[in-house]
Amino acid sequence: MGTKGTPYVSSGSGSATYSQQTGSFLPPRSRGPLDRYVTSEAHQATLNTPFKKEERRQASRALARWFYTSVIPFNAANNEHYVNAMKLVSNFGPGFNAPTSHEYRTWMLKEEVEDVQTMMKEHQKAWKRYGCTIMSDGWSDGKSRCLINFLVNSPQDLLYDYLDDVIQEVGEENVVQVVSNNALNYKNVGSKLMERKENVWWTPCVAYCIDLTLEDISKMTWFDDTLKRARCISKYLYGHQWVLALMRKYTNNSEILRPAVTRFATSFLTLQSLQKQKDNLVALFASQEWSESTYAKSRQAKLAKHHVLHDREFCGRVSFCIKGVLPLVCVLREVDSEERPPMIFIYELMDAAKEKIASNLNKVEKKYMPIWRKIDRRWDEQLHQPLHVAGYYLNPQFRCEDGFLATDEVVNGLFACMDRMLGKGKEREEADCQLDLYNDKHGPFADSMAM
User: Fold this and answer.
1) Which of 160, 170, 234, 331 has the CA that lies 20 to 30 A from 136?
2) 87 contacts: CB under 8 Å, gap ≥ 6
3) Cβ contact 119:127 at 8 Å
4) pLDDT tens across 50-71, in order?
5) Residue whose C-alpha is closest to residue 320's, from 283, 268, 284
6) What angle separates helix 346-360 from helix 386-394, to the nearest 10 degrees?
7) Which tens digits make up the pLDDT trace of 98-115?
8) How confident is the model at residue 184 (pLDDT cuts 50, 70, 90)?
9) More confident residue, 67 or 122
10) Cα dihedral 52→56→57→62 (10° resolution)
């Protein structure tokens, strides 16, 4: 006997359905696009929560195995295209056949290139309106082998030809500057570029220059010794899984190693973490749990314990290094972020960082001047460019402050940029008039919204 709550009983997909209301079989109904989601099997699987959990676990393990065996970085799972692809596969439902390697390199690649080219057309419109910067870079793998050989190993003239080809493709009239690392071959090419391209600037990468400055500072005796002791502690803590788990227990899952933009920035941020977690690390190395373990017997363990518990000089050294370098690390973070264009802030950021370092070290010259000299050497030789001071001068955030300094250095840098980019013609005259309005806060610059 049937029940009123279930008037239809289906014997399977695509089969006749018996109606208890009419007492007869209804003809088979054709399947629609939504049926794949509402079949009795799918419905049963949804109800069977433990089964769905296990099914998801197996699918997730398969995806993980793909990541591991293909050496795909874990953060690739945060890529919006990965997330979107997973949603589309899920929406497709059962029966989705994964693309083959042949498809990836043929029609799919072709369509993706076409999409990028379409998108580039919008960017190219902006080149003419705003100008643009050409950037180049070179990097090495773990064995110090160059990954882009022509950037590092090519003869100077050939490297210049490569850059020139890119400039011509973009349109020389649209290019404001070329940014690269400041290896000797790039510096030579940069000089030649500025000789032959009247309106184009070459400038070294700011983040790269600051990293070199951090490297210079880290080689100073005081800093070098402190960093070596810090590495001894972090190497021990992260060298054994049991010790690492114990450390996270005592630090409430806080990390000592803090990966940053560059290797040297990471080293100094690690010092900051050691200082912050000092009491927790003291508790760790003084605990019975650690002292009774086999991991407390090695020479490395005893040395790490000594630095944390008994090396009074180390604590003071860490504090000094943080005060003397962290403002520079903050500048590195700022210029490497994508929140705002760094060009118009670099000059002020570097100046403020130096003043902060001096303030942190109580304005004692013998403490801060050695650090200043390291900064100035890189700044004066590589990073101090007219474009940077022009950016400072033309940035209304600084220009409207009481502490704005229109020094000869700043004004000369601005004029150098105007001379190079505008020449001596009518366009330059118009720019001079606009500059007067900007300086005096007249015309459109006097508007309340502009202020």
Assistant:
1) 331
2) none
3) no
4) 778 888 889 999 999 999 999 8
5) 268
6) 90
7) 999 999 999 999 999 999
8) confident
9) 67
10) 140
Q: Is the pLDDT of residue 47 over 70?
A: no
Q: What CA–CA distance (Å, rounded) separates 244 from 148? A: 37
Two structure tokens written together for 303: 């040395």
Q: Is the dihedral of CA 146, 151, 155, 156 positive or negative?
A: negative
Q: Residue 24: what are its φ and ψ, rounded to 5°?
A: -145, 165
Segment 396-429, tens digit of pLDDT: 888 777 778 788 888 898 998 888 888 788 888 8
Quote the CA–CA distance of 255 and 236 in Å, as a whole number.
13
Whether the Cβ atoms of residue 383 and residue 204 lie closer than 8 Å to each other: yes
* Cα gap 212→298, rounded to integer Å: 35
Rg (CA), the chain: 32
Does the pLDDT at position 148 exceed 60?
no
Angle between helices 221-237 and 299-309 (to 10 degrees): 120
Interhelix angle 221-237/263-276, rounded to 10 degrees, is 70
Question: Six-digit token pair at 389?
Answer: 């001071």
Spatial separation of the C-alpha atoms in residues 178 and 191, rounded to whole Å: 11
User: 286 and 309 in contact (C-beta within 8 Å)?
Assistant: yes
Q: Residues of 178-215 as b/e, b for ≥16 C-beta within 10 angstroms?
A: bbbbbeebbbebbebbbeebeebbbbbbbbbbbbbbbe
